[in-house]
Amino acid sequence: AQTKDKNYWVQLAESVTIPVDNIIDGKPVQASSGKTFTCISPIDGRVLAEIPSCSQADADAAVESARKAFDSGVWSQTAPVKRKKVLIKFADLILQHADELAILETLDMGKPIGDSTAIDIPATANCIRWNAEAIDKVYDEVAPTHPNELGLVTREPLGVVAAIVPWNFPLIMAAWKLGPALATGNSVVLKPSEKSPLTALRIGQLALDAGIPAGVLNVIAGFGKDAGEPLAKHMDVDGLVFTGSTAVGKHLLSLGATSNMKRTFVECGGKSPNIVFPDAPDLKAAAKAAAVGIFFNQGEVCTAGSRLLVHNAIKKEFIAEVVEAAKSLQPGHPLDPDTSMGAIVDQQQMSRVLGYVDKGTADGATIVAGGKQAMSESGGFYIEPTIFDDVTNQMTIAQEEIFGPVLSCIGFDSEEEAIAIANDTDYGLAAAIWTSDLARAHRVSRKVRAGSVWVNYYDAGDMTAPFGGFKQSGNGRDKSLHALEKYTELKATWMNL
Ligand code: NAD
């Protein structure tokens, strides 16, 4: 077997074909305006490609194609077991193209190649496969009504679904939408982020190769205002599913409501508390997990443990352990398989994150690790893992989602205080609790207002449990059988027997 060392990936980066075509109605197409946008690699600032930049006319064409495919029944009216077979082929093709997709993901958004290969590509295929495997095992219902009548309770696909996704896990976020949307029989228009469009464009082609009929999956690249808003406002889109920032999520909820009341589900940001009690089973392990919990994927994770709440009795020693753990998470070349932290997605995001570092210092917090741009000689965008002590929960760095490698450490003296600080946020995506006290684990996990709570680890999760947020972290759930609900309408059919 070939050794997949840095050399292998550097060579693949040179030889890989950069996908630039949108997919509409089963065909590779350019943007109708002829406009493009420049796709830059955050690894070294290199231009990767000019990508056709879609706008209203392209969104309209994609929706028209999706509608035609839906109404034809070529996908929507097939037996679930048939859709299952095609989707499993789609998942297989993703795995067969694993190296190609991994290099595109890393070149496009800067994450370490080790993460792309071990996490992003397998999780994408797994999500498609899981939904495919599930769909012929979901039964409808018969209502417990009078024997002289029959009440059927069935789920039917929404119709045309627009999926708008972010750049931090471009493929996984697309798969969380595509898996359940396609399995339930919808037609989809996928709009990836303008910061990371490459892998979505590539899997649009792979879906066709797998036998997903033309028009059932369209992929249009472009900016939110140009390509996303026309989908959100469209009168012939039945469902809008979004993952991204809370500000854009709120805007899309209003567009969905004021256009045609399309079913709109948004999965948004987070400011997750990671709460460490002195009786944590293994404080060293907790400190390591706290570092990975914020610095994984360069901190560009919706569930990042960005607020570390530590009991004041152990705070000083614990933060010293986190600083120690962060030393092995320094940025490195993303094509080196040994690198654990890669590049920030683009210059704009790097400046935004460094702006928060300045704001934290100005507000009186103390930098105990990092705080600066790194590897600037590369031409790429890197930031040191950064840790602030002496943070109060009112500070901007504790309230706003930074979406970068910046940890805010906050002390507490009692369980009640920890819960109050944890919940003192607009967000409610995730939380973690470290304690050996079973009763406390139950008490605190029930009182923390978050969609996912982890006890004595961080960032656990697979396809079996729903994922989503309380409060302004969103209004829907991805993953698990619960996700299928948002892609379907519930119908009651009454029969007079
Ligand atoms: P973003 O909101 O800027 O963009 C997300 C997507 O929306 C992109 O495709 C963008 O082009 C599009 N968009 C932007 N403005 C639009 C508009 N006016 N109309 C239609 N579409 C528009 O978010 P981002 O910077 O790409 O991603 C980071 C955010 O995503 C963070 O807040 C993060 O927490 C969140 N996120 C949430 C989850 C979750 O499951 N809850 C998962 C990953 C990321």
TrEMBL record:
Pfam families membership: Aldedh
Gene3D superfamilies: Aldehyde Dehydrogenase, Chain A, domain 1, Aldehyde Dehydrogenase, Chain A, domain 2
Origin superkingdom: Bacteria
Location of the Aldehyde dehydrogenase domain: 31-492
InterPro entries to which the protein is assigned, alphabetical: Ald_DH/histidinol_DH (IPR016161), Ald_DH_C (IPR016163), Ald_DH_CS_CYS (IPR016160), Ald_DH_CS_GLU (IPR029510), Ald_DH_N (IPR016162), Aldehyde_DH_dom (IPR015590)
Keywords: Oxidoreductase
Active-site residues, record numbering mapped to chain: 267
Family affiliation: Belongs to the aldehyde dehydrogenase family.
Name the UniProt record assigns to this protein: Aldehyde dehydrogenase
Source organism per UniProt: Sessilibacter corallicola
Organism lineage string: Bacteria, Pseudomonadati, Pseudomonadota, Gammaproteobacteria, Cellvibrionales
